[in-house]
Amino acid sequence: MSRGFVKEEDQEEAPFIPPRADLPAGTINYVTPAGYEKLLDERNELETELTSTTVTDEKEKRHLTAVLTGKLTLLNERIASARILDPKDQPREEVRFGARVKFRIIEGEQKGSERQFQFVGVDEADIKKNKIAFFAPIARVITGKKVGEIAEFRRGPAIQKFEITSIEYDTSIE
Is 158 exposed, middle or buried (0-12, 13-18, 19+ CB in 10 A)? Predict the structure, then answer.
């Protein structure tokens, strides 16, 4: 049917489905066991929301269903591509996936300050909780390092040097 014969008020705008955190092409979707459990919990919540909606307006219900279905599709793709790496299986003496790393900045504008990050999967990353994706630039610089080793990280034109002060692998689920 020609678009000329469709009433404007009958046209529905396509729903916006927020994308998931970006996983660069060709990057394996590593997740910790805790991260995988969170993905499964998220799927259960979305499925429950989808099946128990109380929206009665037909247009709103179609919109909500489309958004939830879209989110579920993206989430199921992420779950299907997940490769679980258990931090307890990582070498304790060096920084690997799942490590909680403490380091002291020894050269650069933040000299003397200390930082701590845990390297996790893309869907687990949360800077407020000091969890960063394993492929973040700083994670790539530190991976493979041992306590006492020095790493260099370029921040714009400046270079920061820091010393790894501790490596821990917490296997508890948050």
Answer: exposed
Instruction: Name residues whose C-beta falls within 8 Å of residue 109's C-beta, 6 or more positions apart in sequence.
Output: 158, 160
Phi and psi dihedrals of 90, rounded to 5? -85, 155
Residues 107 and 156 in one domain: yes
Q: Whats the size of the chain, residue-wise?
A: 174
Residues 6+ positions from 12 with CB-CB distance below 8 Å: 59, 62, 63
Judged against a pLDDT cut of 50, whether residue 151 lies above it is answered with yes
Q: Residue 23 sits in which domain range?
A: 15-84
- Contacts of residue 165, defined as CB under 8 A and 6 or more positions apart, other chains included, come to 102, 103, 104, 114, 147
Question: Sign of torsion, CA 88 27 73 67?
Answer: positive
| CATH number of the domain to which 149 belongs | 3.10.50.30
Task: Tell me what pLDDT residue 1 has.
Answer: 47
Distant-in-sequence, close-in-space partners of 125: CB < 8 Å, separation ≥ 6: 21, 131, 132, 133, 136
Assign 116 to helix, strand or coil: strand
Are 75 and 105 in the same domain? Answer: no
pLDDT band (50, 70, 90) for residue 171: low
pLDDT at 82: 96
